[in-house]
Write a structure and sequence with these properties.
Blueprint: E1 3-13, E2 18-20, H1 21-25, H2 32-39, E3 43-45, H3 53-68, E4 77-81, H4 92-100, E5 106-110, H5 116-129, E6 135-143, H6 153-156, E7 161-172, E8 177-185, E9 193-194, E10 217-218, H7 220-241, E11 251-254, H8 259-269, H9 280-283, H10 290-300, E12 309-316, E13 320-327
Parallel strand pairs: 4-5, 4-6, 11-12
Antiparallel strand pairs: 1-7, 2-3, 6-7, 8-13, 9-10, 12-13
Helix pairs in contact: 3-4, 7-8
Bound molecules: oxa(dethia)-CoA.
């Protein structure tokens, strides 16, 4: 019988430090009113000293394992969707594997920016469905505030730090679990969001690298236009492939980048407000952490009930985009 990958439990982690729009007013020429009107964000979380992506990931992973009542030794796989790993290598997933004591698990990172969780969930699901692994930990985590230019008002208002983790297990197919995934990419748009320094193009050892950007760069309007199309395309495609329509969706959990982008996707799909989960006002854009953090909060608010059809959708640097359909 076909195996399904089923989410057993979710964990999360955000730093304690809160950075409000009013704090940002003191750093750049902006206003609480502008930020709320253009993005829907009121505050975001920011890592303190020693708080790295693996630190947040380990906290989220431990919470997920505790809720799943699973020992770390039972995990066969640790996948972390991140573009802000602690180091270029080793992978952050190896740090998480060691940090939680997943002594029987393989570990690797998936680099798909804000779609990192969607991509990671897809890979782990396929490995469960083909029988290679039984239990997987899938983390989405980013700490972009480490890479912000705090004088650039077009980016510093948007991003925050956060992580979410799910324990995923193979079960006999009973019509619940990760039902379908769509993954898309267009590398010709790679110049629209990037972080140049530190890779093999601009290694820190090369004097030529002085010209490379050391902080996040984003062409806001281009990314905005791409995001609106990408969200619509991924959602329509996944529903179409599943033979479903937007009215079958019980909860829409989109990447939390900008409330206007979320609203326009919901409008295109004809989804009413109560079917759309939003927490961008509290955390800003936490990149790979965004969707699992939203799933975590949705579950804790009682908005995710067994049998519900959940549609996630994300987009980000790459350019990449994609969606998951999950029967809760
Ligand atoms: O996960 C993927 C990552 N990224 C995204 O999803 C971001 C996608 N893009 C966006 O969310 C929006 O493009 C932004 C929120 C970044 C910008 O909003 P916008 O409505 O596209 O503004 P804009 O870039 O067209 O700028 C409008 C004006 C400009 O002034 P002028 O040229 O009209 O005088 C900007 O200089 O707003 C100005 N502006 C600001 N003003 C106050 C830009 N940033 C700020 C700011 N405070 N923080």
């Amino acid at each position: 019988m076909k195996k399904r990958a089923v989410i057993q439990a979710i964990g999360h982690s955000v730093p304690d430090k809160v950075l409000t729009n009013h704090d940002l007013e003191k750093l750049v020429d902006t206003s609480d009113e502008w930020i709320i009107q253009r993005t829907g964000i009121s505050e975001r979380r920011m890592c303190g000293p020693g708080e790295t992506t693996s630190v947040l990931s380990i906290r989220a992973a431990k919470e997920a394992l505790a809720h799943a009542k699973m020992s770390p030794a039972e995990l066969d796989l640790v996948v972390v969707g991140t573009v802000t790993g602690d180091m270029l290598f080793p992978s952050t997933s190896c740090l998480v594997q060691a940090g939680i004591g997943a002594v029987n698990a393989g570990a690797f990172d998936v680099g798909a920016a804000c779609a990192g969780f969607i991509y990671s969930l897809s890979v782990a699901t396929a490995m469960i469905e083909n029988g290679q692994v039984k239990n997987a930990l899938v983390v989405g985590a980013d700490t972009l505030t480490h890479f912000i230019d705090w004088t650039d008002r077009s980016t510093c208002i948007l991003f925050g730090d956060g992580a979410g983790a799910v324990v995923l297990s193979g079960e006999e197919d009973q019509g619940r679990g990760i039902m379908r995934t769509v993954l898309l990419a267009d590398g010709t748009g790679s110049q629209y969001i990037d972080l140049e320094i530190g890779g093999s193009r601009y290694p820190t050892t090369n004097p030529e690298s002085a010209k490379a950007r050391k902080c996040i760069y984003m062409a806001g309007s281009e990314v905005y236009r791409f995001a609106v199309n990408a969200m619509g395309e991924a959602c329509c495609r996944i529903l179409d492939e599943a033979g479903l329509s937007p009215k079958d969706v019980d909860l829409f959990v989109p990447h939390q980048a900008n409330l206007r982008i979320i609203d326009s996707a919901a409008k295109r799909l004809g989804l009413s407000e109560e079917k759309v989960f939003v927490n961008v006002h509290k955390y800003g854009n936490t990149s790979g952490g965004s969707i699992p953090l939203a799933l975590y909060e949705a579950e804790h608010e009682g908005r995710l009930q067994p049998g519900m059809l959940v549609m996630t959708v994300g987009f980000g640097a790459g350019l990449v985009w994609g969606a998951n359909l999950i029967r809760w």
